[in-house]
Design a protein that fits this description.
4-stranded mixed β-sheet; 4-stranded antiparallel β-sheet; D-Maltodextrin-Binding Protein, domain 2; 3 domains; Dipeptide-binding Protein, domain 1
């Protein structure tokens, strides 16, 4: 009997030990992805912000109606199915009935219903909320009129909850690309009761936020740490493979990240050009670094027609000079973009250059790429850098501006201090352009701007003369690239350039864009947009530069598992990705990229059938 008792005790201990082992095993399987960052987010209010690092966080905590797979084929999100009428002016979406809003503690708050999309759009189109993405949402019927205060009854705006799980959009005009617009934050839902209770506090803390997406914000300590944890009530949680995402603040993140990666403290790091040779020459490091995947962000140098910088940089003199087309063209043709790009891509810099604002392979008409439509064709296929033309325009400008502008013209060119490559590139551009044009003509002043809030403190207030800027598409139409430069856009205010007003009071560029937008036929529409973009470039209001995604990184993520889309927030989502045991080498990346491109072509072709 005593032996039996000891035997039972031994069995129990073994069982307990095995349970403990299983618990430990389960714990070890919990995956975590760790990165460092320097640019702090100011708000979690996705309905208000348009800054990438802010809606990138929100995209993992709130779902929209649709999302994309890893080939860029649209997939159900909170909408399980949808349909449109013949002219694409009315779109109807049926929602999943198992999606939930939860609190920061993971407690269920409410079901996700059609009215949440109505409430979200109402917030965005209420001008007092100052949403940075409201202009996108004015595609909805009467959206612009409501935003401008021309009507006060939101029931007249083209969005309705037909029942608890059906939402209907009525648009101002036929919009066959509307589905792609839903991938942006202005069309995301919000629980009306919750946001009404929180008021201006909505999105200020993790507690003042509701979650229906893949992750919940478990910790939010600005300039210290933020942590996302898997949402266990998420309707599609089986596709969420990373349990925890940890962002650690470090004001020198871009500089220290490579070393932290090598020490195993983080799982991803951009490798600056200044040390990339060192990595490729070291066998151990070489196996951990790869190219980044190009994206559809377009980079360009914006010339500011509404300078608001300090008097010491002579804004009035800059304004006189920049309003002279010959002066602008001298800068346009003087920029050696290959030399500048070497600061990011030292091996194949020309491969990343873009001669247009709209990148190649974004949209096409019957197999013809948009950038190859006249009159963009010649621009697309020629390098803007031309020493002879630069000097020719310089002499014309000096003659035209004699007695009007003071030479050398001070050209304030700030950069984000948190980005070493940008700092290096600014120095290269300064030296290269001053050498070509002469310091008797231009004095390019490179100045470090803030690493946090650069957009709100430098670019948007117009505290620059010449600035490297970028733009990412919001939907699958050329207007997503032309709109930023219109009267309601966010960039360098070319509508303020002197001498371009037409009889109707609008600028030439604005009229060209408006004409394109009013055209329903896709082929004619794209042709008109190409004409508008060509005008923007030919007048040297902007200097197209490159596409995004260039450079090198060490990462334990497989980029070809990620959701893929040229527009919206899809690229910011971690859903569907997993942390690899070891980083991908460049050889592995190139092989995977080739396979992915072939598979994507097949997937897109099948999706169009």
């Amino acid at each position: 009997m005593l032996v039996r008792k000891y035997w039972l005790l031994f069995v129990c201990l073994v069982v307990l030990f095995c349970v403990a082992c299983n618990d430990k095993s389960a714990s070890e399987k919990a995956s975590e992805y760790r990165v460092v960052y320097s640019g702090e987010i100011k708000t979690l209010n996705y309905l208000k912000t348009s800054e990438t690092n802010e809606f990138a966080v929100a995209a993992n905590m709130v779902d929209g109606l649709i999302e994309y797979d890893n080939y860029g084929v649209v997939q159900p999100g909170l909408a399980k199915e949808w349909s449109a009428n013949e002219d694409a002016t009315v779109w109807t979406f049926k929602l999943h009935d198992d999606a939930k809003w939860v609190t920061h503690e993971g407690k269920e708050y409410a079901d996700v219903v059609a009215q949440d999309f109505v409430d979200g759009l109402h917030y965005v189109l209420d001008a007092k909320n100052e949403s940075s993405t409201a202009w996108i949402a004015t595609v909805v019927k009467n959206g612009e009129a409501f935003y401008n205060g021309e009507m006060n009854d939101f029931k007249e705006v083209g969005i309705k909850a037909l029942d608890e799980h059906t939402v209907e959009y009525t648009l101002e005009a036929p919009t066959p690309y509307f589905l792609s617009m839903l991938n942006y934050v202005c069309f995301f839902p919000v629980n009306g009761k919750f946001i009404a209770e929180k008021g201006e506090d909505f999105g200020t803390t993790r507690e003042n936020f509701l979650y229906n997406g893949a992750y919940i914000l478990d910790k939010f300590e600005p300039q210290n740490e933020r942590v996302l944890v898997k949402n266990e009530t998420y309707w599609d949680k089986d596709k969420v493979l990373i349990d925890r995402i940890r962002y650690k603040y470090n004001k020198e993140a871009a500089t220290v990240a490579p070393e932290l990666f090598l020490r195993g403290e983080i799982d991803s790091a951009s490798i600056p050009t200044s040390i990339i040779d060192e990595w490729f020459k070291d066998e151990k490091k070489k196996s951990q670094v790869r190219q980044t995947q190009n994206n559809f962000y377009t980079y360009f140098y914006a010339l500011n027609f509404n300078p608001q910088f300090d008097a010491q940089y002579e804004p009035d003199n800059w304004k006189i000079a920049v309003n002279n087309k010959d002066f602008r063209k001298s800068l346009f043709h003087a920029l050696d973009r290959v030399s500048a790009m070497l600061t990011v891509e030292p091996y194949n810099p020309a491969d990343l250059l873009s001669n247009t604002i709209t990148p190649k392979n974004f949209v096409d008409v019957e197999g013809v790429d948009y950038t190859q439509l006249a009159p963009l064709t010649s621009i697309s296929n020629e390098d803007s850098f031309n020493k002879e033309l630069a000097l020719e325009y310089k002499e014309k400008a000096k003659t035209a501006l004699a007695g009007k502008a003071t030479f050398p013209v001070k050209v304030l060119m700030p950069y984000n201090a948190g980005m070493p490559d940008w700092a290096n590139r600014s120095q290269v551009v300064e030296q290269q352009m001053e050498k070509l044009l002469g310091t008797d003509y231009v004095d390019i002043i490179v100045e470090a701007g803030p690493s946090t809030g650069f957009l709100s403190e430098v670019r948007r207030p117009g505290k620059f003369a010449l600035l490297e800027a970028n733009w990412g598409p919001d939907f699958a139409d050329p207007s997503t690239y032309t709109d930023p430069f219109t009267v309601d856009g966010t960039y360098n205010k070319p509508e303020l350039a002197e001498g371009y007003k037409e009889a109707n009071g609008k600028t030439t560029y604005q009229n060209l864009v408006d004409q394109a937008k009013e055209t329903i036929d896709t082929a004619k529409r794209y042709e008109l947009f190409a004409k508008a973009e060509a005008f923007l470039i030919e007048e040297a209001f902007v200097i197209p530069y490159s596409v995004g995604g260039s450079g090198y990184m060490a990462s334990k993520l497989n980029p070809f598992e990620a959701q893929y889309s040229p527009f919206g927030v899809t690229a910011e989502k971690f859903k569907g990705q997993q942390v690899l045991e070891k980083p991908m080498s460049n050889e592995e990346f190139k092989k995977a990229l080739s396979e992915w491109e072939q598979e994507r072509a097949e997937a897109l072709a099948n999706a169009e059938k």
